[in-house]
Amino acid sequence: MRTDQDSALLAAPGREVILNTDLPGLIPFANGKVRDIYDLEFHLLMVATDRISAYDSILPTGIPDKGRVLNQLSAFWLEYLQNVCPSHFITTDIDQIMTEVALFNPELPTWQLEGRSMLVNKARPLPVEFVVRGYLDGSAWREYQREGKVCGIELPRGLGQGDRLPEPIFTPAIKAQTGHDENITVREMMHLAEPGHLRKAMNYSLAVYDAASAYALERGIILADTKLEFGVFQGEVILIDEVCTPDSSRLWDAAAWSPGAPQPSFDKQFVRDHLDRIGWNHEPPAPALPPDIVSATAERYREIFRRLSGNDLE
Prior knowledge:
Elements: H1 4-8, E1 10-12, E2 15-16, E3 27-31, E4 35-39, E5 43-48, E6 53-54, E7 57-58, H2 66-80, E8 89-91, H3 94-101, E9 117-121, E10 124-125, E11 130-135, H4 138-147, E12 149-150, E13 153-154, E14 164-170, E15 173-175, E16 181-183, H5 186-189, H6 195-218, E17 221-233, E18 236-240, E19 249-253, H7 269-277, H8 291-309
Antiparallel strand pairs: 1-2, 3-4, 4-5, 5-9, 6-7, 8-9, 10-17, 11-14, 11-17, 12-13, 15-16, 17-18, 17-19
C-alpha cells in the first residue's frame, strides 16, 4: 500500500519514489524485497519498486529511479541474451501491459507502472540461487580465507580480495532459515530439484555470465559476479527475475580495478559500506539512509544503466 513517505520522496519533479504499489483489481501473487508481482491469469506483472535491501533487511528509505533502472536494465539484458538462454520476458511496453491490466481494472492509471513494469510468463522457480563468480569477493572471499576453496571448489593459493579467478566458477546458494544466503556444493544442489533441470540451469548460468561479462568489459565495467534465477515453463528451463543488475551483481569500474582491497562499485555495496560504517548490527529494523547516501546511490544506479545500455533512463 502506498504510504506518505512514498509521496514525500521525489526522484525528479513530478516523479515519486515508490516503496509499495497499490493496484486495485489486480491479484497479488508475491512480494519480494524489491518487486511486487501480480497474477494476470496467463502472465505475471512484475513491478520493480524503489525499495532497497541490505543484509536481508528492507531499508525504510527508497532510492529514486532504482526500480526503473532494475526493470529497464533487466529488459536490456534479457533481449541481449535471448540467443544465449530463453527467458520469461514478454514485454516492458506500457501499452501492451495496460491492455492486459485493463482486463482487471480498465481505470487503473499508469504512473505506478511506467518504466518499472514487465510482463512475463509464469514459471515454476527452481529453489536455488545460481551464482557465477569471475572475481573473488563477498562471501566467496571470506570462505576462501577460511578454507582455501569456495563451495567445495579448490582455488589457487595466494589470491587476494578482488582478484580475477583463473576461470569463472559456479557457486550455488540457498536461503537458510535465518534468511541469509548459504553457499552449497553442486552435489548438494542436485538433491533440491530435478537434476536435469538444475544441470541445464547451471550451464545456462555460466553461458550468461560469459556473454554478459564480455559485453560489460567492452564498456569499461567488470561484472565481478552475478546471481541468477531460473524456472521451468512448459517443461523448459528459462531465466527469470532480474538479470545482471546492481542489486544482483557486483559491478566495478574496470579503469579503477585494483586487486587486494574492496573495489569502488556501481552496485548496492555502496549502501552496505555505509551501514557498516555507522555500526548497524545487520539485525532488523534497518536504519534510514541519509540524503547524501540516497543521492549518491541513485546516481550510481543511473550511471551503470547508461554505461551498460548506452541509453538514458526512460
